[in-house]
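<amino_acid_chain>
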Amino acid sequence: MPLWLLSALKGLLFGLAVSGLNHFILFQGIKNARNLSPAEKKNVILKRYSLRYLINIGALLSAYFILKGDVPFLVATALGLTVSKNVYIIKYFRTRKA
């Protein structure tokens, strides 16, 4: 097994974990915003999206700086951060056509 493969798998798992945390944060915000006024809902969701972007940037920066520029880990982390979003998009289009 190539040495970079183990690093890439760790990066993918790290990215997926951060992505899972991001979706949890967003869905908790949506759940908490149900009983608020429209202006307050918008504010809560905007704060959650901003927090998610900061977490994504922090994950990518930590993958780069803490691991001293381990490129396979960094690329796999970025892939892990985006793969769940792509799964949701595909799932949406499949259920919409049915």
About this structure: The radius of gyration is 16 Å.
